[in-house]
Write a structure and sequence with these properties.
Length: 766
């Protein structure tokens, strides 16, 4: 059985009569994910896009703002030749009449784990051959951290994640692991770029066995497995920064701050200490102050601070804490706390971001600079922060602030999205629906009729990773997988490369896009480039034909376990950071110079607009939209594995026993979550592992808006979340700052239709 690589693991592919019948776990994987096992049945599922399709109103009336019809009208299936001409003509029309910045192709999403058939890379290369496009910066996962962390420690955030202190170093040396936002191992089955074997649960269990004590700082006890062996601090959502600042204040008050480390390795301690002491604003950030905000008693805060100072401690922050209003601050505060403890660069100590969140964090990997598809130069300078899509479409020409830059939203005429689902991960989906009507044309490339495809004008069906050859290789994972085609494409689906080649041919840019290479030629080229790069760092890789024969290979581990910032700790003069000072910046003159009132020159507490501290009778509950454990974002949501956890087809909602009793809700009831932005339905799960005042709903349910009310009939919590930036610095998503009410549904709820394909009409009916 051949292998394939996915974001949720590597699998053997069993096929029969040209169709994939089963995926079985990779033999080397000690903790395989069951997510991928749903994929074979989805290949020919009713949600599969089988032929190119065009919205009837667009086909009849031409490109123009949809005025509410996008997502409501039936589709007409067309030939590939016609679809290519329609796309080519529309792109040329917009380029010639409005300029390339009128094409938005951020195209955010995980798409395929294969190195060549990566949808966004293919799209960006194609459009760069045509003059470029308006792009996006950062990720929905951790945009706030991506922007603030380089100001503080000089490292690019994504590069930092692959250089974290290894789990083995933690098991051998750490004594106390304090997990702000928890350690959600149920989410660690995923790794963007592909996962060879799953290491997070094994790393965690080895650390437990060696005696590492874990403290779960989260409103949800289930955010850390083996709860009996851990300390739970139930904390109000969005108040982690206040707790961290109080821990810092306690260390200074008790003379436990490492003055020597602060003097040699940091700048700005005096400014930060003055803020903690209240010199700058009259408010002492002590344990009593933080207790009022966090609901944790002062003695618990002070006791934790002293234990952290007297043990080898690792300060861990979940990526989820970046996705709140002022999401930059928990990360800056955590680095500041680690500096006061003085253990950065020591084995098992310091700080970390994302342990338990993604498979690769803490995985000790030899980083090979694998080659990827060259995307060429984008001649368009316009960009937006990744989660400002609705702002851009609704407010063309208006200005925005971002990381010291003043940008201007372009007047977008075409949205081209390949390999992603914004109607899953964006906030305030009803606002996105409104903004989505503004462009002249929306073009989607995907393999299934998710909400984004249903709200398109031109839909182009693409293949899945099981229907094409590729190479699974990422510097985040030690495995290289020869991904062998396991089945013929369903219907008329084509590889993204073939789709763009056909459109490029109609636009006269095929030679530039393809460079005369077939898919197989590109795979040989990418592997040859990879072998050359690997050789330069002392890694010997086999010839391409040998890789195909072997099916997979594993890159040897580095000679020693990784310890983040070890070289800087050993000699900060010889190994300075890429900050203006060369040191860790507890106070950043550069950030201060931006003049942002919501992001000052040091870590600060800023009260969110929506959190339990501002709850009202109308909206008394804080909603957290966690990552799902049974799918990757919205991928494979129609699958059997994801469906098992739903209640009558509705996404589940966790409530505390008190909150459920107060509302007359029983386990398994269908409930409605609502606020002024929208509503969605869900199935109630009552759990004692959740603090009262908080409800938790997984993201990833395919958006299924009711035409009359706008409520999501399926249970996507992003119908409720605010579409605001974290701050002017990063403008990241702030989904976790959200207040709602939950009520029991006493009448029949609307049926779920998320997996129903759109209606189709014949050409003669238009």
């Amino acid at each position: 059985m051949p292998l394939t690589s996915t974001h949720w693991g590597t699998f053997n592919v069993k096929s029969q009569h040209g169709r994939v019948t089963k995926l079985t776990p990779f033999v080397d994987d000690p903790d395989p994910s069951k997510i991928g096992e749903s994929l074979p049945r989805l290949l020919a599922h009713p949600t599969r896009i089988k032929r190119p399709a065009v919205r009837r109103g667009w086909l009849d009336n031409g490109p123009k703002p949809a005025e509410g019809t996008r997502g409501q009208e039936p589709f007409v299936e067309v030939s590939w030749d016609e679809a290519e001409k329609l796309v080519a003509n529309e792109l040329n029309r917009v380029r010639n009449n409005f300029g390339n910045n009128a094409i938005y192709a951020g195209s955010y999403g995980w798409a395929s784990a294969g190195r060549f058939h990566h949808a966004q890379s293919q799209l960006h290369r194609f459009l760069n051959c045509a003059g470029g496009y308006t792009s996006s910066k950062n990720t929905y996962s951790f945009a706030a951290a991506e922007v603030i962390v380089p100001h503080v420690i000089g490292h690019e955030f994504i590069d930092l994640l692959t250089n974290h202190t290894s789990w083995k170093s933690i098991a051998d040396n750490c004594e106390l692991f304090v997990a702000f936002g928890g350690l959600p191992l149920e989410n660690s089955q995923m790794g963007n770029g592909g996962a060879g074997i799953h290491v997070q649960r094994g790393g965690f269990n080895a650390a437990l066995k060696s005696g590492v004590e874990f403290v779960n700082v989260s409103p949800r006890g289930l955010d850390l497995e083996s709860a009996k062996l851990t300390k739970q601090l139930h904390i109000r959502p969005n108040s982690d920064t206040a707790l961290i600042l109080a821990l810092c204040h306690t260390l200074i008050k008790e003379n436990q701050a490492d003055e020597q480390f602060l003097s040699r390795y940091t700048v700005g301690y005096e400014n930060f200490a003055a803020y903690l002491d209240g010199t700058s604003d009259g408010i002492k950030k002590d344990a009593s102050w933080a207790s009022e905000l966090t609901s944790i008693c002062p003695s618990e805060i002070e006791k934790l601070a002293l234990r952290m100072a007297n043990k080898r401690t690792l300060v861990s922050v979940s990526w989820s804490l970046s996705r709140q209003q002022y999401g930059e601050q928990p990360f800056w505060a955590a680095i500041s706390l680690a500096c006061l403890l003085g253990q950065i660069g020591h084995a098992g100590g310091g700080f970390g971001f994302g342990y338990g969140v993604s498979n690769y964090v803490g995985n000790n990997v030899r980083r090979v600079p694998y080659a990827s598809l060259p995307q060429l130069k984008n001649n368009v300078e316009d960009f937006i922060p990744v989660s400002r899509v609705s702002d851009m479409l609704l407010n063309p020409g208006s200005e925005f602030e971002y990381n010291g830059i003043k940008g201007k939203y372009p007047d977008v005429k075409v949205v081209y999205w390949a390999g992603g689902n914004p109607f899953h991960h964006h906030q305030d989906l009803n606002r996105l629906l409104k903004s989505w009507q503004k462009p002249d044309t929306v073009i989607i490339q995907d393999w299934c009729w998710n909400a984004t495809a249903k709200h398109a004008d031109i839909v182009l069906p693409c293949t899945t990773m099981l229907e094409r050859n590729d190479i699974g290789m990422t510097p985040r994972d030690p495995y290289v997988i020869s991904m062998a085609k396991g089945a013929e494409p369903i219907g008329e689906a084509r590889d993204d490369y073939e789709i763009f080649s056909g459109i490029a041919d109609k636009m006269g840019i095929k030679d530039k896009f393809c460079e005369g290479r077939t898919t197989e030629d590109w795979l040989h080229y990418l592997w040859a480039e990879t072998r050359s790069r690997a050789y330069d760092i002392g890694v010997q890789l086999p010839e391409y034909d040998e890789l195909i024969e072997k099916e997979y290979l594993r890159i040897d581990k580095p000679n020693k376990e990784n310890i983040m910032m070890e070289e800087f700790r050993a000699d900060p003069e010889e190994n300075p950071l890429s900050t203006p000072s060369g040191k860790i910046e507890l106070f950043s003159e550069k950030v201060e110079s931006f003049g942002y009132p919501d992001c000052l020159g040091h870590a600060t507490w800023n009260e969110p607009d929506e959190w339990l501290g501002s709850a009202t009778k109308k909206h008394p509950l804080h909603l957290l939209g966690k990552q799902p454990r049974n799918k990757l974002h919205s991928q494979l949501d129609p699958g059997e594995y994801a469906s098992k956890d739903k209640i009558n087809g509705y996404q589940t909602v966790e409530l505390s026993p008190k909150d459920a009793a107060d509302r007359g809700i029983e386990d398994g009831d269908i409930v409605c979550l609502s606020n002024e932005r929208g509503a969605c339905y869900g199935g109630a799960v009552i759990t004692p592992n959740l603090m009262s005042g908080v409800v938790v709903m997984s993201t990833g349910a395919w958006f299924d808006p009711c035409p009359e009310t706008g409520a999501c009939r399926h249970g996507n919590p992003n119908t409720l979340t605010p579409d605001i930036g974290t701050s002017k610095l990063a403008q990241g998503p702030a989904a976790h700052s959200c207040l709602v009410e939950v009520t029991r549904c006493s009448v029949v709820t609307p049926p779920v239709s998320a997996f129903k394909p759109p209606d189709f009409v014949n050409r003669s009916d238009t």
